[in-house]
Amino acid sequence: MSRAKLPGLLGALTSLRRWPTVALFAIAVVIPFYADEFWLRTGFAVFAAVIGAVGLNLLSGTTGQLSLGHAFFLAVGAISYSFLSGEGSGGISGLGLPPLLAMIIAVAVSGLAGLLFSPVAARVRGLYLAIASLGLVVAGQHILNTATPLTGGFNGRSVPDFSLPGFSFSDSDPDLTVLGVPFGQAERLWYLGLLLAALSIIFANNLLRGRSGVALEAVRDNPLAAAVNGVDVAAYRARAFLLSSMYAGLSGVLYALSVGSVAPESFTIEVSVQYLVMIVLGGLGSMGGAAAGAAFVTALPLVLQQYSDSLPFLSAPGSGGVSYADAARFAYGAAVVLIVLVEPTGAAGLARRARKHLRGPASSSDTNDRERKKSTSRTSTQNSAPMVAAAVIAASPDTIPEK
Fold first, then answer.
1. How many of the other CB atoms lie within 10 Å of CB of 181?
2. Which site from 82, 226, 364, 388 is most exposed, i.e. has the minimal number of CB atoms within 10 Å?
3. Can you tell me whether residue 158 is helix, strand or coil?
4. Domain-embedded: residue 3
5. Hey, which residues does 92 pair with through a beta bridge?
């Protein structure tokens, strides 16, 4: 049986033909047997960010649509899951649905919110779309803060544990030990996040290899030429925004599970900017690069916080020195500048260079194929990176001078 005929997940994995990806996945599978709870919870937060970054990369990197509204769709997914799966008490409403059903509906609600905004996304692009989507975050925070029975207002609301029929992703119910290692909430959530992140990346890669992916790239590179060749530019932009919002909704659900409580104040403009930083660092248009950027931006502040007492250049927040949060911002801010100046295609571009160096001379057909992909990636970066940088500067609260 040929590889093209292998069904389902196995066919998707074998079609990648990238042993480093399989090796990385295998390492991730065994990590819970050796890592402590801090690293497992950090990994789950990274998996949540990976899903959101892949969704934004489909919109901004592949389709060329710059959005600053990602935080709004994260909020919709997180709060919808908390409302649907939670029980009502203390003036806060809840439907008490099974968590798996609540997760599916929450992703669908995020997609519905994206669908309602998609007519705008279909007709504007660049900084105009960035400004329009920025209004979603500003208006959304106000609406969610005032909807206290739904969101808990400024105090937020707790998030029920995720569970499947007969199995809970908590420290018990049932008690679970694998190869002598007790599997509590952190270990179970690690595998949940790993599975969902892997499936999200596989789906995105399969989409890009199909006709829809070619159409989305054509819309990004030259909308007029795409329209002349029969591509419905407005429809594909709207579909990309819909799909990106659903990815963000799933990411929001995992974020809610990772922190245990959600409040509208957790989903600010800064969150949208962080997701833009993720895809710029990883490489616009690269799903693996988006995952790498998400891991860097998400894990760095958590690691610095964990080991702040051992690092002499860090001080406690509010003490006047450099806190772990400030150090993380400086680090990935400097990384963005270096990436844009040295390797505009991000970590994905560096990985391609390394693979080419290790493989040595290749056949002419393989070389031509790689050059074509490089050209597409450069076009995407040249079209999108300046707009992304401008949007980051304009939207960052740190750029507003204090009076």
1. 12
2. 364
3. strand
4. no
5. 89
Q: Supply 183's token pair.
A: 């599997």
> What gap in Å lies between CA 61 and CA 209, rounded to an integer?
15
Report yes or no on 373 lying in a domain. yes
Q: Which residues of the chain have pLDDT under 50?
A: 1-6, 12-16, 362-368, 370-382, 386, 389-391, 393-403
3-state helix, strand, coil in the chain (%, to 5): 75, 5, 20
Q: What pLDDT, on a 0 to 100 scale, did the predictor assign at position 173?
A: 73
Tens-place pLDDT, residues 322-348: 777 778 878 878 888 887 787 777 777
Q: What CATH number is attached to the domain comprising 304?
A: 1.10.3470
Per-residue model confidence as pLDDT tens digits over 58-70: 998 888 888 899 9
Q: How many CA atoms lie within 13 A of 50 on its CB side?
A: 25
C-alpha distance across the termini of the chain, in Å? 69
Cis omega (within 30 of 0) for bond into 174? yes
Cα distances (angstroms) measured from residue 2 to each of 7, 11, 15, 203, 356: 11, 10, 10, 21, 27
Q: Is 263 helix (H, G, I), strand (E, B) or coil?
A: coil
pLDDT at 318: 63
Confidence at residue 319, expressed as pLDDT on a 0 to 100 scale: 65
356: nearest Cα among 373, 339, 344, 340: 373
User: What domain count does the chain have?
Assistant: 1
Give the span between the Cα atoms of 76 and 80, in whole angstroms. Answer: 6
Residue 1 in any domain: the answer is no
Please tell me whether residue 160 adopts helix, strand or coil conformation: coil
CA proximity to 121, closest of 140, 138, 136, 142: 136
Domain of 279, in residue numbers? 8-399
Residue with token string 């250049």: 313
Burial-class residue 180 by CB neighbours within 10 Å (0-12, 13-18, 19+).
exposed
> Which own/partner pairs from 175-182 qualify as long-range (CB within 8 Å, at least 24 positions apart)?
178/33, 179/33, 181/32, 181/33
Distance CA(204)–CA(201), nearest Å, equals 5
